[in-house]
């Protein structure tokens, strides 16, 4: 393996942060799922995502140590970094209560949860597959573990997406509203920056932009089956992976980090 | 020297044979393929290699503890427990006898070959969506007439099915 670089570390943390924040978001359904089976499904998938994040943070700690000499653990990354240091896609941090966010608070909408999981898992199905060839053997090993879980996640979200879109008038309307709201945030998946260029040149990870068309084809096929329509493209690109987050991020972190910060080094 | 080393390995294998899976205690971690190896590491120390079934499998730390407990009870020392991610665990590794034990316990074993794990290399064609697999057979009455109730069951590795003939619900160990 090549000597670790800042970009390599930053890239692994991006993957970890998105998995963690989406895993954390989806745990909000734990005990509140629309039906028991979905409650359990969401909890299981959160477990997968948080498990992936743990593997990635542990790997990041190794890279961090080689770069800076600092000893850090998975918990340091998850609980003791500030909002600006998190590099997850903005999509992962958005609330489940949908496009009304910021104007009024309404109940969590499962259509938002499903649409987001579908858009993200469909991306990761391509990304994990490509990462099997990473020049970083540990990242390739994590990809081999995670791709299997991601296939189940795609399958789950895709089935519900079709059921909602091609379901009742209300389920169709809510799925379409969720799609209209969330789809613009997927532009961030495919924007290329210095971190991604550097890891691509080092053979650690492909440019995500490389499989944008494959991802679009997967998404379009599901939307067609679901009788949903992709919204018109927008120009704005969200900036979560650069550490610039939406107003929702602070609330996610507050809930996730407060206990660990009140009781640092607690063991149970 | 070699003979001594081998005996310690044999004793360790024997001690670990009885370690059950914490969530499905009718099968051992060896039969499930979680216990990958008991070997001499490069530095000569006895090393037990385990692999997680799922990234977030909550049983992993319990399994490591159980392994340590079994080795301690057999007075095997020193040792260390290593976790490996590659090759990734697959249900294809579950032994035939373990499949039979799962069935007797009321859990339908995974059907078909998921084509993952050791056989899945980087050149494998990516499967974006789940391949269609044959429906599991009811572990109680043997009927093939079953339907899925939920893709995620009581643990990450299981789905919930029901038999349309005997009407009993059952857990299905997902091919993975």
TrEMBL record, chain A:
Pfam families listed in its UniProt record: PaaA_PaaC
GO cellular component: cytosol
GO biological process, one term: phenylacetate catabolic process
Organism domain of life: Bacteria
NCBIfam families for the chain: PA_CoA_Oxy3 (TIGR02158)
UniProt name for this protein: Ring-1,2-phenylacetyl-CoA epoxidase subunit PaaC
Protein source organism: Paraburkholderia tropica
UniProtKB/TrEMBL annotation, chain B:
Domain spans labelled PaaD zinc beta ribbon: 137-174
InterPro entries reported in the protein's UniProt record: Fe-S_Maturation_MIP18, FSCA_dom_sf, MIP18-like, PaaD-like, Zn_ribbon_PaaD
A Pfam family of this chain: FeS_assembly_P
Superkingdom assignment: Bacteria
Sequence ranges assigned to domain MIP18 family-like in this UniProt record: 11-72
Matching PANTHER family: 1,2-PHENYLACETYL-COA EPOXIDASE, SUBUNIT D-RELATED (PTHR42831:SF3), FE-S PROTEIN MATURATION AUXILIARY FACTOR YITW (PTHR42831)
Protein name: Ring-1,2-phenylacetyl-CoA epoxidase subunit PaaD
